[in-house]
Amino acid sequence: MSAQTVENYQPTADLLKDRIIMVTGAGDGIGRAAAKTYAAHGATVILLGRTIKKLEKVYDEIDAAGHPEPLILPLDIEGAGAADYDQVVERIEEDFGRLDGLLHNASRLGDRTPLEYYNPEEWERVMRTNVTGAFLLSQAMIPLLRAAPDASVIFTSSSVGRKGRANWGAYAISKFATEGLMETLADELDDARTAVRVNSLNPGATRTYMRHLAYPAEDPASNPEPDAIMGAYLYLMGPDSKGVTGQQFDAQIKR
Ligand code: NAP
């Protein structure tokens, strides 16, 4: 499958008006930018993440800009179990009764080490956060997504989840699994009962803490800020991507 690029999408101001959209890892980096961008286009955003202080800051920024009041849902995806997801479902059911969008964004980078030396405990933590967490959250959200008239799920991939690369360890393999989750869920939800579309998006090199961890010697200014790559995030979340499902996307044109 070859990925499609959406870099220069021009959204309308109220593209996501009245939509309820959950963003995982909403406290920092690309997730923070996506949450603020979705709110700026009219969505009520559910800020899910593990560092409450960061989520509160994003909440305040959205509130100060006069956008719809977000909801903070603290959750450490790595350690969360069925009871935690039940609570998340309960809260969304009570407050909104449906979910129009889900951006799986939170991820753990893990070690940059050859598989020969990869720490098995770190492997578990990466898989738990990036794969099992995304599976459990997706599974929990399916009834709420089915209850929405035009729901979209976006899984965040990476170029190392589409072509294996030395030393990227569990992270790369977790992103291959993310693509598998996306394709499987897209196929399962592609029926007459539901309007839920499911796609994957590779943000490409972006100026964040994770990028700095992965490439400490790189000049951060050589990569765009998260705000600059939001076109594909808006396109896939909004009504213009209706009917598009099971596809791989890139947020940036490869240069
Ligand atoms: P980031 O700045 O490190 O942000 C990652 C976010 O995920 C943070 O908000 C972090 O929370 C959250 N998170 C991590 N573990 C979590 C857990 N167990 N429970 C809940 N939240 C957790 O990274 P980013 O660069 O924005 O990455 C966003 C996505 O893009 C990831 O899926 C990443 O794999 C992907 N990606 C990024 C690049 C790039 O160049 N930046 C390239 C390809 C793919 P805390 O702030 O509390 O730690």
Automatic annotation (TrEMBL):
Ketoreductase domain ranges (all copies): 19-206
Transmembrane segments: none
Molecular-function GO term, any one: oxidoreductase activity
Keywords recorded for this protein, A-Z: Oxidoreductase
The keyword Oxidoreductase appears for this protein: yes
One Pfam family per UniProt: adh_short
Domain of life according to the entry: Bacteria
Family: Belongs to the short-chain dehydrogenases/reductases (SDR) family.
Protein name: YciK family oxidoreductase
Species name: Halovibrio salipaludis
